[in-house]
Amino acid sequence: MPLTPETLTRHELVGLQTRVVESTNPDSVGIGGRVVDETMRTLVIEGDRVRRVPKQGTTFEFALPRTDEAADAEKASGTTFELPSETAGRTGQSDGCEDVAYVTVDGTRLLSRPALRTEKAGVSIWR
Amino acid sequence: MGIAAERIDRLATLAREAVTAGETDRARRYVRLARRIAERNRLTLPRSFRRFTCDACDAYLRPGRNARVRLADGHVVVRCDCGATARYPYE
Ligand SMILES: [Zn+2]
Hints:
The complex is a heterodimer of chains A (127) and B (91). With 127 residues, chain A is mostly beta strands. Chain A has one domain (8-120): CATH 2.30.30.210. Chain A has helices spanning 68-76, 117-120; strands at 17-23, 32-38, 42-46, 50-54, 58-65, 89-90, 100-106. In chain B, 44% of the residues lie in helices and 19% in strands. Chain B has three helices and three strands, in the order H-H-H-E-E-E. In chain B, strands 1-2-3 form a three-stranded antiparallel sheet, with no helix packed on it. In chain B, strand 2 (75-80) and strand 3 (85-89) form a beta hairpin. Chain B is globular. At the A-B interface, loops of A face helix 1 and helix 2 of B. The complex binds zinc ion. Residues 54, 56-57, 59, 80, 82, 84 of chain B line the site of zinc ion.
């Protein structure tokens, strides 16, 4: 299970490049850099300086390095974007570099202890 | 390879890089998280991970940087900067 837009919420976020695209706190919009740490409710992003951003109320845009494996999985699941993922979706590839995919994720979907996210993330079937 | 195994793999790489960059405490966070993921998912940590982490303080060990490695009769002695030693047999 490589790191793809579908598995992002259950995969390791530390080490990824990210950017805050939307937030209830206007001051944190635009914070970007590398994720260096994660807690249950926050992400620590290191850009020009180290900032701790709450997951709740923040929309992140992650840059996924595209590997061959991930590209194959993406083709295989090309239609899954239409599934009920109103909060996670691809914003589109940037023009110049084709080896990076950008994924926007509502931080609320990442609210979980870092070690448990692999098991818990996703929409519960119990409603 | 499942997501959990991949996360452990990536955390090991990140921890190694963090120690090289001088961020030993950040590396500790990664090692602890990797251990927790292995525990939750009932995975055996790779041997390289077990040998290059300190059982006492969770530091990621880079020999020469924050660990000393000595050969003794029949075993390798790895001493972390925290003082804990680990011994591994060899033929
Ligand atoms: Zn130690």
